[in-house]
Each structure stands twice: as C-alpha cells, then as structure tokens.
Write a structure and sequence with these properties.
The chain is of the alpha+beta class. Helices cover 19% and strands 28% of the residues. The model has no long low-confidence stretch (mean pLDDT 93).
Length: 660
C-alpha cells in the first residue's frame, strides 16, 4: 500500500505540479503549467533521489503543514522559509526525515522570493491529465481535483527509488529583490513595431513587479512605449495589436501599453507584440518575482544562453548578475526569405522560432501556407520538436535546443519551404458547426461593469461594447451589428486564443469582418464562453479569466470537463470541441435558454450544437472573392473611414497618451 500525506494547513496557492508539465498541447490552448520555478523544484527532487520531474508541491508566500502515515523524507526548496518537524527546526535544500505522525510545518516567507516547494521522496501520485500531473487551476484539471489543496486533503505517495543526498551550496539559486533577467531579442522588435528609443528604454529601465501578478503572467510597471506604428490595422486600433500568433513562455507581452512576462499558465496564442523573451534557463526567476521587486532586462546571444537542462553551476543561477557582451543585434529577425510568399523567421527566446508569412494582412492563403508547413513538420517529427502552434499567418516551432538547435532547425525549415505545395491547392476537412448565441448576454454586461468599476470607467468601448463595434465599423444601428454577426460564417484559424480550445476565427466573407480594437488595459475577468471580437477576429473564451475582445454575447461550452469520456458534441478522448478550419455560424437564443443548453452540455448532452462534415477549398474561396470584389472594396472603404474617425477621436481625447 502507498504511504499517504494529509494536509493539516494548506498554505497559500498550494498545488501539485510536475516537470516539464503538460507538453504538446500548446496549439489547442493548454499551457504546460508545472513549477513556475523549475530549478528549485528539480533540485529538491534530485536531493531526494527522485526523478527530477516527479510530482511535488508548490505554494506561494506561506507553506503548508502536513502529516504522513509512514516515515518519510522531504526536501523544502525555493524562497526562504522556516521548516520544522514537531517544532524542531530544519534547513532547506537538504533531506529532512519526518517520522510517521509528526507534523511537517513549512512557514511563511522570511526573505526575498515568492514560491516555496515541498518535495517528497517517491513523489506524489495523482492521475495524469493529458499526460501530466500538473495542476491548471483556471482549467480545473490536473493535480488534486484540478484545484489548490485544502485542509483535510489526502495525497498518495510513490515508492522511493533512489538515495537521498542534498543540494550543493553552489547549485542553490540566488533569490533577490533586484533581478537581472537574460533575454533574447524578438520576436517583435524595432523598427517594425517599436522605435529604437523604445528598445533602448526597455533595456535601461528598472521595472517594478506589480501586485496583480500570478502564474499566468508577471505584470510590470514601467514607461509607455512611443511605438513605431500608429495602429495595428486589421488587428486592432492600438499599435500593440497584431494578427494573432503563438506566444513563448517568458515573452514580454505588451497588452496595449502594459508589459507582462508570460508564465507557465499563460495563454498560448494572442494578438499583442512581444519585443523580448526571457531565455529558458532564466525563466525560473519568474516564479520568485514578488510584488515590488525590481527587474532589469539584459540582452544575450541566443546561442550562448545556458541550458535549461543543467541544474549545476553552468545554469548560472547562483550568480545574481547576467554577464553579457550584448544581444544578437538583429532585432529578433533570424532570417528573411523572398519569393511569391515572403517568409520572416523571428526569434522567440532560445527555444522558439516564429515562422511568419507574407505582409501583415488577413489572407487565408497565408494561413494555408502555415498549415502546409505544420503538416510537413508534424509528419517528420524530428527529435527535439516539442510544439507546433499555428497563428493567423504564422507557425511557431518550439524545440529543445539541446536536441534540436535553432541553427539545425533553420536548415530544416528552409528545406521544407522549398517543397511546400502552392497555397491555392489547399483543400482541408472543414466542418460546419452551428452554435447558440445569447446576444448581449447578462454575463458579458456584468464583465463590462466590473471593468468599469475596477479597471477604468472612461474607456471608449464602455459602457456597451456592441455600440462601440457599431461606431468603429460605420454601421447605422446595433441591429446591423446583430445581422452581420448572425449572417457570418466564421472560419477557425487558431485554437487556444484565450485557452482551452478557444477559437480565433474570421468571417469567410470580408463584408462580415467587423473590426474592433482590444481592451487596454485588458479585463481582469471574462465569463466562460463569452463571445467577442478583437481586430477582425472572433473568439469564444474557453474559461473564465482575463481578456480583451469586445463582447457580443455568450455561447455554450467549447471544452469538455468530462474528458476523456464522450460527451454530447465532444469526441472520445478529445476535450476540445472545435478544429482548425471549422466554420462556425450562430443562431440566437435567450439568456435563460442558453443556461439550459449549458446545463445540458455539462451533463453530457448535446447543448444545442449541430455539426456536419465538409471540406474547404481555398481556390473556390478565391473565386468567390473575385466575383464579389467590388462590393467587398466598397465595404472596406466605408469601414476604413469609420476606423479612421474613431482613431482621431481617441487621439483628440488623449487615449494614446494614457499610462500603461
């Protein structure tokens, strides 16, 4: 029988995590999760003779108290705390023997840092979810019942397989209140997105960690960029807006004018620019950044970054200073390739390459090109390939650089590009998915009110997002917005735009493409399955969380929390409802009817979703565009006038001068 531990006091934000977490699901909006400070976690496991990724406990600011029904050995790492066994003090970073029935008490922080790790010899046994024991609380899965631990929880322990030792002093990471983070340039640098002065300011500034930070991202306080562009065009009114692409963990994401370092529970896909990315070996520091801490970014050459695999002195974690002779000096652009479809290869840390096609326009031919590359790499499956995540006109390729160095990857990408089929040859499976939509749903109204009370009341899109959409697109009435949304067929171009299978989709008919901008700053709360428009794209929010799209209503679930069982419209073993190139259309329901449909879906019934198999031909679509080109251009011209007028109103009101 397995030994067990019982939680007597849970501490704060205490969860079960494993390393490297949930790998391989970035493309459908499932983050890896795992320990935010992977180094402290892995060192604690090795000190106990465990595999370095064995499931353990993470908490923040205050640790747990627990008992064991058998003699056990533990190791407490991370930020400095008191550690006692039945009141007798013990040290961190070394094995601690806990007799059966004794109370292991891990106290509150007694120094700098934020997160504490409790590792147990043999590890913690939990059921895997999509291949990992890591807890993702926002998604309500993984770990112990998909949530933080509570008093009275009982966890099973695994069998010890190795001898306990300790962590050498020179391997213990240095935890501070003032930090230097090693970063690489890109993916979105100067002069395309930021000015040279913006980048100089970024490296010269001592940023402060905002109190509103968590595992999804570390919000920073710092200067507002001047920006190299006036707008994001089709992607949105603010110059931070871009056509959605995949993010890297550790990217500095400018959501409007607010910089946020994306964490292991952060979004996989989004429409904001990221000028720099923390290298993988330094991302452990994100887990120890506490409110009020100071940060400086130090550019390094990607090929000289330390390896995340290393746990010893070569990780450079015990040194508080990042030694660097400078970055790569290429603004994050590794290479460019000319041709019928231009290709830009952008660096996103030392472990990601963002392959970007064509100009910054919404063009399904570019999405087709990214799809062809995606299929090619997925079929080859080279060793070291970890994730492939498509965006609107891009594909992010994540690798283990110790197995598949970026230089070798670039050779593979060039070879693949030479053999890809023409974009107009694309014919893909494309289901029609008809879904209920509660227009201007009360839950979305509540989210707007919360935003006005807690974030900013004077935003141009408040108090009614639908009226803002009408104004930005030059429509005569909000009924025209209604007619446009319900008359459109939205093609799914990406998944995981706001986590958990959330689609980023655009109308196939350009005359249905309502263009908006995104909230700046973003909302702190969005109801699950709210439907919104940002730039020229529609999204269904897969779960509660932050967000920035302009609301039009709410629909039923796009993620199956009953996984892996077949449930309603969800397939066996596939918790996400939608697929790339699905075509979504809406039918109207009242709010009360939607609540009934949502209850049906939660109970494993259909939930009002109708799905029919089909296919999509890009060549046929281009024929449609050609035959309707005149009216499409007339609509775009009208829309452009309204978009320009709205931007002028923002400029006159000082909107672009607002602090982040």
């Amino acid at each position: 029988m397995n030994a067990k531990l019982t939680i007597a006091r849970p501490g704060m934000l205490t969860t079960v995590q494993d390393y490297p977490g949930r790998v391989g699901y970035w493309q459908i909006g499932v983050p890896p999760s795992g320990p935010m400070d992977d180094l402290s976690f892995r060192l604690g496991n090795t000190a106990l003779g465990n595999p370095e990724g064995a499931p353990g406990i993470e908490c923040a600011m205050a640790g747990p108290a627990m008992t064991f029904d058998e003699d056990t050995t533990v190791c407490v790492t991370g930020a400095p705390v008191s550690v006692t066994v039945d009141g007798i003090a013990h040290g961190q970073w070394r094995p601690v023997f806990v007799p059966a029935g004794a109370v292991l008490d891990v106290g509150t922080l007694s120094g700098p840092g934020l997160r504490i790790y409790v590792l147990v010899q043999g590890g913690i046994e939990t059921d895997d979810y999509l291949g990992s024991a890591s807890t993702f609380t926002l998604g309500r899965f993984g770990g112990h019942e998909g949530r933080t631990l509570r008093a009275g929880d009982v966890l099973k322990l695994g069998q010890a397989t190795g001898a306990a030792g300790g962590v050498p002093a020179e391997h213990v990471p240095a935890i501070h209140t003032c930090w230097e983070l090693a970063v690489t340039e890109g993916p979105h640098g100067a002069p395309e997105f930021f000015t040279r002065s913006d980048i100089d300011t970024l490296y010269a500034t001592e940023y402060e960690v905002h109190f509103n930070s968590d595992r999804t991202g570390v919000r920073l306080i710092g200067p507002k960029p001047d920006w190299a562009r006036t707008t994001g065009g089709e992607a949105g009114l603010h110059p931070s807006n871009i056509h959605d692409n995949a993010y890297s963990i550790g990217a500095l994401d400018f959501t409007g004018d607010t910089p946020i370092l994306l964490g292991p529970d952060g979004p996989s896909l989004g429409g904001f620019v990221c000028p720099i990315t923390v290298v993988s070996a330094d991302r452990w520091k994100l887990g120890q950044l506490a409110p009020g801490n100071k940060i400086r970014f130090v550019p390094v050459r990607a090929e000289r970054a330390a390896s995340r695999r290393d746990l010893g002195v070569s990780r450079r974690a015990s040194n508080s200073v990042v030694h660097s002779s400078g970055g790569d000096g290429d603004d994050g652009v590794i290479a460019r390739r000319d041709g019928d479809t231009a290709v830009t290869y952008r660096r996103s840390g030392d472990d990601n390459v963002l392959v970007e096609y064509g100009d910054m326009n919404l063009d399904l031919a570019l999405r087709a090109r990214a799809h062809a590359l995606h299929q090619r790499l997925e079929a080859e499956k080279p060793a070291g390939l970890l994730d492939l995540t498509p965006g609107i006109r891009s594909l992010q390729v994540r690798v283990d650089p110790d197995v598949l160095p970026v230089g070798k990857l670039m050779g593979m990408l060039a070879e693949a590009e030479d053999t890809l089929p023409a974009a107009n040859e694309l014919v893909v499976p494309s289901r029609t998915v008809r879904m209920p939509l509660s227009w201007d749903d009360p839950a979305t109204r509540e989210a707007i009110q919360r935003y006005m009370h807690g974030v900013r009341a004077d935003a141009p899109w408040c108090p009614w997002n639908i009226e803002f959409i009408r104004r930005m697109n030059g429509l005569e009435s909000v009924n025209d917005v209604f007619d446009t949304v319900f008359g459109a067929e939205y093609m799914v171009l990406g998944l995981g735009d706001v986590y958990l299978g959330a689609p980023v989709a655009t109308p196939l008919d350009p005359r249905h493409r309502l263009v908006t901008t995104k909230y700046n700053p973003a909302r702190t709360w969005t109801p699950e399955n709210a439907v919104g428009i940002g730039g020229a794209y529609l999204c269904i929010y897969g779960m509660e969380g932050p967000g920035g799209y302009q609301f039009v209503g709410r629909t039923t679930q796009v993620w199956n929390h009953r996984h892996p069982a077949k449930s309603g419209p969800f397939e066996e073993g596939t918790p996400w409802l939608l697929r790339f190139f699905d075509r979504i259309s809406w039918y109207p329901v009242e709010p009360e009817e939607l609540m009934d449909l949502r209850a049906d879906t939660a109970a494993g019934r259909g939930g009002g979703v109708e799905i029919e198999d089909g296919s999509f031909s890009l060549a046929e679509h281009e024929e449609f565009l050609a035959s309707n080109s005149r009216s499409i251009e007339e609509f775009r011209a009208m829309q452009s006038v309204a978009f320009g007028a709205e931007r002028q109103r923002w400029s006159d009101a000082g909107e672009f001068a607002l602090p982040g």
